[in-house]
């Protein structure tokens, strides 16, 4: 690995960590696009790499902060974690069975849809 790649990975990881701790996003919304556009990975490689980096204690310090502030529903988190494992396995099988360009298109459309909903909802709340 060259120094440029290392620097990009450090920047991507730091930014995604900050975003994850701040608004709860990171892997899909930041890391996957950054790996595609910043390092030239294909959609499947970017998704797999993003999932692999989440295996270690994901956001452990952020979780501790939220837990100490009483801002975690442990029951919800447990159910989500269990179903996420199954869903991630199903999703990975499905994603790997389609063309990487189709996977990227679906990913982009989903991000566009979510972004549009968030923008419209926030705009409506600012202008009652």
Description:
The structure is a single chain. Helix 1 (about 5-25) runs antiparallel to helix 2. The mean pLDDT is about 80. The chain has helices spanning about 5-25, 25-40, 45-55, 60-70, 75-95, 100-125. It contains six helices and no strands. About 80% of the residues lie in helices and about 0% in strands.
Outline of the structure:
The chain is mainly alpha-helical and 128 residues long. The chain is 81% helix and 0% strand.
Number of strands: 0
Task: Tell me, briefly, the overall form.
Answer: globular
How far is the first residue's CA from the last residue's CA? Answer: 52 Å
Q: What proportion strand?
A: under 5%
Indicate the structural class: mainly alpha
Give Rg in angstroms: 16 Å
Instruction: Describe the oligomeric state of these chains in a short phrase.
Output: single chain
- Tell me the series of helices and strands, N- to C-terminal: HHHHHH
What is the average per-residue confidence, as pLDDT, rounded to a whole number? 82
Please give the structural blueprint:
Elements: H1 3-23, H2 27-39, H3 43-53, H4 60-68, H5 74-96, H6 100-126
Helix pairs in contact: 1-2, 2-3
């Amino acid at each position: 690995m060259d120094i440029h790649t290392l620097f990009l990975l450090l920047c991507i990881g730091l930014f995604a960590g900050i975003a994850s701790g701040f608004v709860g996003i990171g892997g899909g919304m930041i890391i996957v696009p950054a790996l595609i556009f910043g390092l030239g990975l294909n959609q499947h490689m970017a998704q797999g790499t993003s999932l692999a980096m989440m295996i270690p204690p994901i956001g452990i310090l952020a979780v501790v902060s939220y837990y100490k502030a009483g801002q975690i529903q442990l029951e919800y988190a447990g159910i989500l974690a269990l179903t996420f494992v199954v869903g991630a396995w199903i999703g990975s099988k499905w994603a790997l069975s389609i063309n990487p360009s189709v996977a990227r298109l679906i990913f982009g459309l989903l991000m566009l849809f979510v972004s549009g909903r968030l923008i419209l909802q926030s705009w409506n709340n600012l202008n009652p």
